[in-house]
Amino acid sequence: MSILLQDIRFALRQAWKQPTFSVVAILSLALGIAASITLFSVIYKVLLRPTPYREADRVVRFVDLSDKTETEYTPPIYREQIRQLKESRSIDDVVEMDERYLADRTFDIPRDTDVVLLSGNAFRFFGVPAMLGRTFLPSDAPSGQAPQLVAVLTYQYWRRRFNGNPAVVGQTLRLDNRSYTILGVMPRAFNWWDSDLYLPLDTSDPSRQAFMTVLRLKPGVSKTQAMAEIHPLLEQMNRKHPHSGYEQMNIQLMSTADRYRRSLGKALYVLLAAVILLLVIGCVNVSILLLARGVTRQREFAVRLALGASPGRVIRQLLTESLVLGFAGTVLGVIATYRTTTLVVPLLPWQLFTHGLEIPVQLPALVFAVVLAILTGVIVGLLPALQVLEPDIRPLLQASSRNATADIPGRRLYSILIAGQIAFAMVLLTAAASAISSFRLLQQIDLGYDPNHVADFPIPVDPSSYTTRESRSNYLRQLRDRVGQVPGAISASLGVIGPPASDWDFSVEILGQNSVSSQSVNVNFVDSQFFQLLRIPLLQGRLWDESDTARGKRLALVNQSFVKRYFPNQDVLGHSVRVPDLVNHPPGVLAAVGSNEWAPIIAVVGDARNSGLQDPVKPEIYFPYSLYMIDWIQVFVRAQGDPMSLERDVRRQIANVNPGQQVSDPVFSLTNRLEQESAWARGHLLAVLSSIFSVLALILTSVGLYSVIYYTVTQRVNEFGIRMALGADRHHILWNVLQSQSRSLVAGFLIGLFLSVGAHHLLAHLIRNTPSDPRILSVACLVLLIVCLLASVIPAIHASRRPPMDALRME
User: Fold this and answer.
1) Of 10, 405, 443, 615, whose CB count within 10 A is highest?
2) Which helix H or strand E contains 350, and what residues bound it?
3) Torsion (CA) 752, 755, 756, 762 in degrees, nearest 10
């Protein structure tokens, strides 16, 4: 132990004596380690432990994966099948749930609350206790009976609505003219369905036939095995409810972690590979620095060996020094990680994570950091330590330090390390350039509409307040007209859904085309101002007018994709379509008489992105909003400037029409909605982080190359002095220095070129729409070449400008 302490003290003295060397080495390691721990923490939180639920890998839900996009629709399951699910051999427990938007009317302007209603066994199912108070019990929501008026708050809503008041338990919360007693507050990590609060589910209404479900698989049962048993139940449900649309769905089971893996898994693993490369470059950089310093200490090592020290003793000392550097770099990297993880969170897709998402540096990440420090210290110190195994120490003892180092057989190792650094840096540069180019292409996609200066205000409509089609239609029209009068607003319109991900598929029939009957297309219900506000061009025919809307007239508009698929080389106007599922179902759904009968196509409009940013535009049919009204509408507003500056005035105008009407939070502009698309957020994440990693790789590579050339020049000072004394000019010295590194530079570029091509193909396989442009590789090579030339030229110029007599006097 005393010898170890002695080695550590000596290592610290060495670091103190050479502060520039120590700072560069520690920062080189800290950059790679901080990036590694940050990505490890993100992957651990997002992919390995995304939720706090008990045995979360067994918690699954039904999703419709028939859509090739990342849209995940959770279909409701009918009560009869839910009862059968509870008796299934594969299912341990079932939670029934629903979602509503209720108005908190304790404010001057009603505030929206996103409420998830859960069956009484839900919190026992999730296995997460309340942070304050308690959760509701099965007795609070007895099956087939009206539940108790109690509520459990999420942490985020508790902080936002009650300012984190710990005395909130037992208080009353008034939602939609009903008072609920607050039972408790859930911990920060628990935010099922990203809601504001949880209420007991009312299963006493016989008219409510289906609920969304969450399942817990029995131990040892896989999703595939469970699905094999459940599939007959779904087929039975489809036969009993033929118009429910289940026949067009690809219903599968998805775990809570699968949702994150599906959207972010490939991107995060690509970034992890980039981080590993960055860490390798950092380790190589420190190895180069230690080798360079070791060259200047060869005479010291020779003296030690001559005085009786064993090679193992010297190697242990050098390993101790590298371990000290490794631990220092790790400590600094861990400290930096506490800041960098907060910078990564805003880059993650908004739809997947709650606003209060935190990515802490947990125990596994700290263990990972310690192991990383030990491995890094051993790796970066091993190669320099092996250089002391010089069998013949007499030349080193007889020569001066500079002469001794001139012929040390370490230049080949230098060349290998530099070539490896350059190759890895080129891979990172190429990947970053590909990610940036892919993201730029995503930003330049033709949307088919103009999202600038437009915001959408989601309005949940109380079905019990407007029970006739005429009253609800008039109410929605009043909301639109009053919002359009807000100062700064240019126009307003109504639509059930809006771009860029406005998926709402219905089964449609086309008159006279039996071969394509019952096709699934996107359907939207809008007013005629919708197209003008979003600047979607009218290509053929006419839009419906206010009188058509007031009567709920059956008139259909279709987009270009619809025409291309079903009417290629034909005139679509005059043909008719029919959506069988547009049936009246009061009070939630109010449809005009004959809403599911044949509707003539009166116009063709341009394609507007309705399936995300990366997938082709779906065939779409537009109907007047008054033909089929659900308990939800969106008011779109085009403003003269920033549409979000109108939010408070819009809310007041809506409250003037109906003092109890809330607007669903949060409200976003359409440009912000684009940025919240998974494809956009994933592309942004890759572009930003890969760019940062490539810049760090460039810095580390340039430092390593500079260090090698600087120490090489230092070793050859006397040689350059003799050359210049014999008549060599400075350009000759400069060229000689550059030529000495040419092999490693050329080898690094060739290897990097080969690896970059392979990495680009792999990236294109993993990440959709990765561009295949040879200019990307050319730009990466040019940038790296400029950096390498600068790192090489600066010490070479310094050597060429040194007076020859100064070099000769040093002999």
Assistant:
1) 405
2) none
3) -170
Question: Mean pLDDT, to the nearest integer, of 593-619?
Answer: 92
Q: 519: closest CA among 562, 556, 557? A: 562
Least confident piece of the model among 57-61, 352-356, 584-588 = 352-356
CB atoms within 10 A of CB 722: 15
Distance, CA of 195 to CA of 303 (rounded, Å):
71
Q: What is the β-pairing status of strands 178-185 and 150-153?
A: parallel
Residue pair 369/334 in contact by the 8 Å Cβ criterion: yes
Which two structure tokens, joined as six digits, stand for 385? 């330590």
Q: Measuring CA to CA, how many Å separate 505 from each of 68, 259, 263, 557? A: 13, 21, 22, 16
Residue 795's φ and ψ, nearest 5 degrees, are -70, -30
Helix (H) or strand (E) holding 364: helix 363-386
Q: How far apart are CA 808 and CA 787, in angstroms?
A: 32
Distance CA 331, CA 324 (A): 11
Global pTM reads 0.82
Q: Is 661 left (phi over 0), alpha (psi -120 to 50) or beta?
A: beta
Contact of 112 with 195, CB cutoff 8 Å? no
Q: Whole-number mean pLDDT of the chain?
A: 84
Tell me how far CA of residue 738 lies from CA of 705, 750, 786, in angstroms.
Answer: 11, 18, 14
How far is the C-alpha of 764 from the C-alpha of 745, rounded, in Å? 28
CA atoms of 283 and 278, how far apart (whole Å): 9
Q: For the CA atoms of the chain, what is the radius of gyration?
A: 34
pLDDT given at position 460: 92
Instruction: For residue 768, give the amino acid letter.
Output: R
- Compare 139 and 294 and report the one with higher pLDDT: 139
Token couple for 392: 């013949």
**Contact status, residue 40 vs residue 344, Cβ threshold 8 Å:** no
Phi, psi of 602 (to 5 degrees): -110, -10
Q: Is the backbone peptide bond immediately before 500 cis, with ω within 30 degrees of 0?
A: yes
- The angle, 0 to 180 degrees and rounded to 10, between the axes of the packed helices 678-715 and 774-800 is 30
Structure tokens at 518: 């019952």
Contact at 8 Å (CB) between 464 and 651?
Answer: no
Q: With contact defined as beta carbons under 8 Å apart, do 70 and 258 qualify?
A: no
- pLDDT over 60 at 401, yes or no: no
Does the structure show a pLDDT above 80 at 199?
A: yes
Give per-residue pLDDT as tens, 211-243.
999 999 999 999 999 999 998 988 888 888 876
Note the residue count of the chain. Answer: 811
Q: Is 77 helix (H, G, I), strand (E, B) or coil?
A: strand
Name every residue whose Cβ is closer than 8 Å to that of residue 252 and which is 6 or more positions away in sequence: 62, 63, 65, 223, 227
The reported pLDDT for the residue numbered 770 is 75
Across the range 630-659, mean pLDDT stands at 94
Cis check: omega of the bond before 666, within 30 degrees of 0: yes
Tokens read off for 609 = 């992105």
